[in-house]
Amino acid sequence: KAGVTQTPRYLIKTRGQQVTLSCSPISGHRSVSWYQQTPGQGLQFLFEYFSETQRNKGNFPGRFSGRQFSNSRSEMNVSTLELGDSALYLCASSLAILANTGELFFGEGSRLTVL
Amino acid sequence: DQQVKQNSPSLSVQEGRISILNCDYTNSMFDYFLWYKKYPAEGPTFLISISSIKDKNEDGRFTVFLNKSAKHLSLHIVPSQPGDSAVYFCAASNDYKLSFGAGTTVTVRA
Q: Percent of chain B having pLDDT more than 70?
């Protein structure tokens, strides 16, 4: 079956702009989580959605937001981009609410560069 | 505040030898621990996990050890193979949140 699909794979923005990233989970998966990966910081949890509701949120400013649609596809938005937002943004899906066993299926990520 | 720490950013090991990756955590409420593996230009993939009620879990060449009193987790890869060269992330779960370490880059030398 198809894996987690993220678009776009690469994008370049300038400071102050906003960006929207998209994630299509594995068919049948209802939970979608977003992570930010930067060198030396590992994967930082942004938020998780299940059945169109945000269930958990990490420690990121309000410029970072997301949503989930009825077909489980999710988008995340970053407004007023800063240089420090340059990172790989990873989406992961799972069958249940961030299955407490933690087994997630990740997409290949969206590489954002802010100039 | 990093609740999960991987203090070794890199590890180089000869093919056929054992790779030992270490991970420390601070939150005693973590109840599930996992290792993920990541190749360049790919998303992380789940490797192996262990529940906090166990101290060892084995899957083929991969074994994870958990020392709850020391809040320490380790991953052993025996024998190491060239295809094991990747970034390995330690992760811990509680309250339906996953916390990841910064990753250890493993290079297996032929």
A: 99
**Best residue of A104, A108, A111 to probe chain B, by most B CBs closer than 10 Å:** A104
Distance CA A58, CA B57 (A): 29
| Residues A10-19: b if buried by 16+ CB within 10 A, e if exposed | eeebeeeeeb
Q: How far apart are CA A39 and CA A55, in angstroms?
A: 27
Q: What is the 8-class DSSP label of residue A96?
A: S
Tell me if chain A has a CB within 8 Å of the CB of B99: yes
Neighbouring CB atoms inside 10 A of B69's CB total 5
Residue burial B47-66, b: 16+ Cβ < 10 Å; e: rest = bbbbebeeeeeeeeebbbbb
Is the pLDDT at B96 greater than 90, yes or no? no
A92, A112, A106: which is closest to B43 by C-alpha? A106
Chain A residues touching residue B89 (CB < 8 angstroms): 42-43
Least Cα separation, residue A31 to chain B (angstroms)? 11
Task: Calculate the CA dihedral of residues A56, A107, A5, A93 and round it to 10 degrees.
Answer: -40
d(CA A90, CA B4): 19
CA distance B14 to A107: 30
> What is the percent of chain A with per-residue pLDDT over 70, rounded to a whole number?
94
Residue located via tokens 């169109």 = A52
Q: Which of A4, A43, A97 sits opposite B89 (nearest CB)?
A: A43
Out of B45, B91, B97, the one facing A56 most closely (by C-beta) is B97
